[in-house]
Amino acid sequence: MNTLFLITLEYPPSIGGVGAYYHGLAQALGSDRITVLASDYRSQKDTDSSITVIRKKLLATRGPFRWWRCLWATARALRSHPSRYLGVGQLLPIGIVALLFYFFQHKRFIVFCHGMDILQACSHWRKKIIASWVMQKSSLIVVNSQSTLSLVREYFHIPSHRCIVVYPCADVEPVNTFRFEERPTILSVARLVARKGIDRVILALPQILLKVPSAQYVVVGDGPERSALTRLAQTTNFFDTDIGAFRSVLDAGRVRFLGALDRVSVLEWYQSCDVFALPVSASSDDIEGFGIVFLEAAAFEKPVVAGNSGGAVEAVLDQETGIVVDPENRGALADSISHLLLHPDERKRLGAQARARVMKDFRWEHQARMLIEALEGEE
């Protein structure tokens, strides 16, 4: 019997930090400890045979009880893959399914929380009541950062001894190719949503280009804000010393939107960039729970400029592995990026310390061991 039967709507090859988190954790736990029930997308194929991944359509397309498909799929899968605990990959709606198994089959379950899921669950009083019930009945709550832990305590009044922090880790494969960029390169890798701060870097570019005229900003990823960000880049002007006139940063090729890339291409950009920048912020229903991309950049010895929001301040240590700024302070953001582009020794120092920290503190084997010990303590 496995230890954990994880039910999740997000799992590779779908793009996103939550899916990457579950994949890394599953790899570290091993097939003898975890089985994964994940959403079935036609475009997805599981390339990793070391973990049992069951693909089913988990949500109905409409109706008030969209989770009924997940309930049915879980019941069937547990017959052939019995486990001691259900793992709730999304507080809502997966938590409802776990709650039903708890009441009708006395099945214990644990809940994974990442930050945004908590805020969204508390956006409506009905959702919050259900989410509170799920949290109270769970055997253990697994959070991805101290920041997320503080949200759990604030919104659900869960004591700390019922929670454990299992940090995301950088799962970075070696890159055999190298992408050479003539221009000093600022890189962001993210889903293009408002809180990621891509717009703030674009608006800071004219100030950056005054000090580093040859710099470019490369954005890897896609999302609902891409059109708006493209328009912003089209209307953000700087003085181009090559032609002696003002131009938009987009027309001059100083902002490049590459869209979603394959994994190897993303790693090549990590390797070739000079500075990784993601000045994240928080909103009423969204927050950066941690930020795996910060660790991935650090694994390539790249200094990071991050926003002082959510778990980003745990992923990036100010003046030790990067620079943490107020994302609303455009001048501070521009100065921090420009400083790193102009001072290779500082980039090297911060990058080396960032990689050393990742290799020491953010290893999946260590994080998985803590989770197993916590679950064994619940026996």
UniProtKB/TrEMBL annotation:
Q: Protein name, please?
A: Glycosyl transferase group 1
User: Mind telling me which CDD domains this protein's record contains?
Assistant: GT4_PimA-like
SUPFAM superfamilies linked to this entry: UDP-Glycosyltransferase/glycogen phosphorylase (SSF53756)
Q: Which family does it belong to?
A: Belongs to the glycosyltransferase group 1 family. Glycosyltransferase 4 subfamily.
Q: Where is the Glycosyltransferase subfamily 4-like N-terminal domain?
A: 15-173
GO terms, molecular function = glycosyltransferase activity
Q: What keywords sit in the KW lines?
A: Glycosyltransferase, Membrane, Transferase, Transmembrane, Transmembrane helix
> Which Pfam families does the protein's record reference?
Glyco_trans_1_4, Glyco_transf_4
Bilayer-crossing residues are 85-104
Per the UniProt record, the source organism is: Candidatus Falkowbacteria bacterium GW2011_GWA2_41_14
Transmembrane helix as a keyword of this entry, yes or no, is yes
Question: Per the record's keyword annotation, is Transmembrane included, yes or no?
Answer: yes
